[in-house]
């Protein structure tokens, strides 16, 4: 249910951006620091879907610079949350994970394949980023693996967020093509991830 609420929110906000395109452009052209602060807050506290803020960054700074900003801020926010959770809640969270046998097995599998697990989950935007951050922090995953997998895994989605934001106000006719191609990409990634996960579970149980 939550997934469909998120999709509906994106659709409504995208339509609003198209309808109020000029007002949006007038607002975006003022202020750099405030926009970057809002972007960081959106990455840390998902009150507004990050794709909306990432799209605004794309409108203001263009595809290349906008993608770089989105990637840098979202990765920094993930690293910051990782350190905060690991420093404050690791022991408590670890005790919770070991309390349930099924979760403990999942955690063990996650830790053995940390880089690929995080990389795959980062490429799937319907998986909440905060859950990946928190789960990684309370597990035995090294910060290096977490950071590299996060950085690489976020590249496709940040490019798409930035491109869609730019297209909303410049060439909305290309939106369907972009979303369609990205949807195909997600299906491929999800299919590969499910296949790899099932295979890993079988190997772990044998």
TrEMBL record:
Q: What is its main location?
A: membrane
Keyword Transferase (UniProt): no
Q: Which residues cross the membrane?
A: 7-24, 30-51, 63-85, 114-136, 143-164, 176-196
Q: Where in the cell is it found?
A: Cell membrane
**What keywords are annotated for this sequence in UniProt?**
Cell membrane, Membrane, Transmembrane, Transmembrane helix
The VTT domain sits at 58-166
Listed InterPro entries: TMEM64, VTT_dom
How is it placed in the membrane, per its record?
A: Multi-pass membrane protein
At the top level, the lineage of the source is Bacteria
Presence of keyword Plastid: no
Its family remark reads:
Belongs to the TVP38/TMEM64 family.
What is the official name of this protein in its record? Answer: TVP38/TMEM64 family membrane protein
Q: Which source organism does the UniProt entry give?
A: Paenibacillus alginolyticus
């Amino acid at each position: 249910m939550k997934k469909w609420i998120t999709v509906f929110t994106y659709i409504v906000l995208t339509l609003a951006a198209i309808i109020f395109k000029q007002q949006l452009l007038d607002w975006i052209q003022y202020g750099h620091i405030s926009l970057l602060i809002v972007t960081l807050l959106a990455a840390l506290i998902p009150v507004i879907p990050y794709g909306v803020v990432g799209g605004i960054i794309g409108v203001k700074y263009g595809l290349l610079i906008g993608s770089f900003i989105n990637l840098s801020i979202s990765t920094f926010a993930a690293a910051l949350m990782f350190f905060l959770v690991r420093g404050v809640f690791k022991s408590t969270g670890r005790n919770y994970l070991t309390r349930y046998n099924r979760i403990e097995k999942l955690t063990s599998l996650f830790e053995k394949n940390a880089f690929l697990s995080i990389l795959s989950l980062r490429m799937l935007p319907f998986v909440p980023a905060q859950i990946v951050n928190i789960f990684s922090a309370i597990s035995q995953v090294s910060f290096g693996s977490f950071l590299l997998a996060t950085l690489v895994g976020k590249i496709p989605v940040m490019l798409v967020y930035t491109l869609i934001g730019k297209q909303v106000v410049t060439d909305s006719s290309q939106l369907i093509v972009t979303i369609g191609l990205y949807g195909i990409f997600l299906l491929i990634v999800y299919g590969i991830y499910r296949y790899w996960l099932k295979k890993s579970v079988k190997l772990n149980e044998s």
